[in-house]
């Protein structure tokens, strides 16, 4: 008799556990079915950007035009000190990217053109060469340099946050498109951070070991002060 009671007790416990599991599954199904699924969030760029992105534009005002962007068709102006131009298609230019985790840019490089050492703090980058030849590379956190000369149709990846560059290889113009893993990848160009800012010459000299005369010359070229 005692043995039979133990078996019945175990059976009851098993039934109770099964009921709990069934109730939990039912709750999950109900919660999922009632959840609001949002396909997209076209940015209201008139509002302020936040770490979570822009607020959504009213769905009733969204049209097909919001999901297409023609800003990368035209070549950028390469008549400048770096003989190059970067035309972004980030969320600020293409609001439909808001919350989708990707963006793009067009790179135009004239002969001797260069996109100086820079970083994207918020994204990795995939570079696709459309025209000409481009020498590109990045520096790892272990200070190992990876450089490759790319031709039309070839691609190269630059991991998030690492210093990297692109430069024309040869005497022809080059064009490339960059795809980023964020709608707002961010951009900081090392030369501009040092020599186009108010970072003082004595501190730059102390922290980079550069000659102060050279620092002042570079500041005069790029418009920095201090």
Q: Give unreliable regions as ranges.
A: 30-35
Class per helix and strand makeup: alpha+beta
Cα shape: globular
User: What is the percentage of strand-forming residues?
Assistant: 15-25%
Integer-rounded radius of gyration: 27 Å
Distance between the termini: 94 Å
**How many strands, which pairing sense, and closed or not: the largest β-sheet?**
5 strands, antiparallel
Which architecture of the domain at 69-186 per CATH?
A: Sandwich
Query: Within the largest sheet, what's the order of strands?
Result: 1-2-9-4-7
CATH fold category name of the domain at 69-186: Jelly Rolls
Helix and strand run: HEEEEEEEEEEHHH
Which CATH top level class of the domain at 69-186 fits? Mainly Beta
Would you write up a description of this structure?
The chain has 226 residues and is α+β, with helices and mostly antiparallel strands. Among the domains are: 118 residues, Sandwich (Jelly Rolls), CATH 2.60.120.10; 39 residues, no CATH class. Helix content is 26%, strand content 25%. It is built from four helices and ten strands. A five-stranded antiparallel beta sheet has the order 1-2-9-4-7, with no helix packed on it. It has a five-stranded antiparallel beta sheet with strand order 6-5-8-3-10. A hairpin with a 5-residue loop joins strand 5 and strand 6. The longest helix has 33 residues. It is globular, with a radius of gyration of 27 Å.
């Amino acid at each position: 008799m005692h043995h039979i009671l133990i078996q019945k007790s175990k059976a009851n416990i098993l039934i109770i556990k099964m009921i709990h599991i069934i109730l939990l599954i039912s709750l999950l199904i109900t919660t999922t079915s009632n959840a609001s699924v949002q396909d997209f969030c076209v940015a209201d760029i008139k509002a302020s950007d936040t770490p979570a992105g822009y607020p959504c534009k009213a769905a009733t005002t969204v049209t097909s035009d919001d999901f297409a962007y023609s800003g990368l068709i035209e070549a950028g102006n390469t008549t400048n000190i770096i003989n190059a131009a970067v035309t972004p298609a980030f969320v600020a230019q293409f609001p439909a990217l808001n919350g989708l985790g990707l963006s793009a840019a067009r790179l135009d490089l004239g002969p001797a053109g260069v996109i100086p050492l820079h970083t994207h703090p918020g994204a990795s980058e995939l570079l696709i060469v459309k025209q000409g030849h481009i020498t590109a590379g990045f520096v790892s956190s272990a200070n190992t340099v990876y450089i490759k000369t790319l031709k039309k149709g070839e691609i190269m990846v630059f991991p998030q946050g690492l210093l990297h560059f692109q430069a024309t290889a040869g005497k022809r113009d080059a064009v490339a498109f960059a795809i980023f893993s964020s709608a707002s990848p961010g951009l900081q160009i090392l030369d501009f951070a040092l020599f186009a800012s108010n970072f003082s010459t004595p501190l730059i000299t102390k922290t980079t070991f550069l000659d102060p005369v050279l620092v002042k010359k570079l500041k005069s070229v790029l418009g920095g002060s201090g």
